[in-house]
Amino acid sequence: MALTIRDIAELAGVSRGTVDRVLHNRGRVDPVVASRIRKIMEECGYRPSLAAKQLALKHQKNKIGFISKTDNNGFWSIVNRNAEQAEKMLVEYGIAVEKRFFDFCLPDMQMKLIDELVAEGINALVIVPLESKEIVNRLQELSDRGIPVILLNSELTGFEPLCYIGSDYYVGGKTAAGLLHNFSTASSLKILLMNGSNYLSSQIHRRQGFIDEITSLDPNCEIIESGDITSDPEYAFRAAKEMLEKHPEINAVYTIPDNAAAVANAIQSCGRTGSLVHIGFAMTDATRPYILNGSISALIGQRAMDQGRMPFEILLDYFATGNPPANRRILMLNDIFIRQNSVF
User: Fold this and answer.
1) What CA–CA distance (Å, rounded) separates 224 from 246?
2) Distances in Å between the alpha carbon of 248 and those of 150, 156, 173, 251?
3) What are phi and psi of 311, to 5 degrees?
4) What is the CATH classification number for the domain harbouring 239?
5) What mean pLDDT comes out for the span 79-93?
6) Measured between alpha carbons, how far is 333 from 128 in angstroms, rounded to an integer?
7) Considering the entire predicted model, what is its pTM?
8) pLDDT digits over 226-246, tens only?
9) In whole angstroms, what is the distance from residue 322 CA to residue 34 CA?
10) Kind and range of the H or E element at 265?
């Protein structure tokens, strides 16, 4: 027989109303009592029915803030599109989503977006965070006030969120180095490293993982680095083209941010398609033509659809039960795409 709220109340030695408040994360309950009730529910495998979730959540009128990066037909377009699909699912539970987007990685700008959402009365925040002490402090403030924060795609030093959803980007960087090394037939690697933002930990780790691994695989390799090409595909194209023209000895390219299409366009424009190895990230409508024509040798996927959908599913369960996810660091697998498996 399924466990009821009455059963939980008797086991915990409290009223049904107290269990109801803990279950639906509303009202004041002594933290020790709340912990005891949640432990009983977990040990007994109690799960509220779908109808009960819907009824309880409609009364709560929760609002989720969502701060994400934007791009044109790339990785972030897929993330944001799937977030919109998740938003439609939340409507039946009475949960609204307030969205904000950023192009450039500027902490001051992100702080303003956070403050805007707080002013809108959000009960939770999903954010692609910038690595900044001010951002960490602000998110800690929200967490301390009972506003759960989910970090999407990038982690933050010194802040423990409700959960993190993204990849292990250091491993992603090492994977890119292995792919580049395996694809290359050159006796001496001359690598153009197209850099990302120092405000996104995902890109910092992609760079470090790559450098650590490639210098282990080929201690004599030469690395030539660009500046930050994260936010502007046109600038990424011009920067890559300029570097390739200035350094004709380059025989491999590693693109750290999610704009490998712009770099591939520069490779093609310079007539270097097929003459060098190019490794990047994210299989999208923008990158697919370039992997098919050889301007990209391989791409490392990040499961953008899951990254867009999962934060909202987790928060739906959190609002309904008050329980954090069992896994507080949810890692996407590093899918590898080459020309032969890129048509779908």
Assistant:
1) 11
2) 44, 38, 25, 8
3) -55, -35
4) 3.40.50.2300
5) 89
6) 19
7) 0.81
8) 999 998 899 999 999 999 999
9) 10
10) helix 260-269
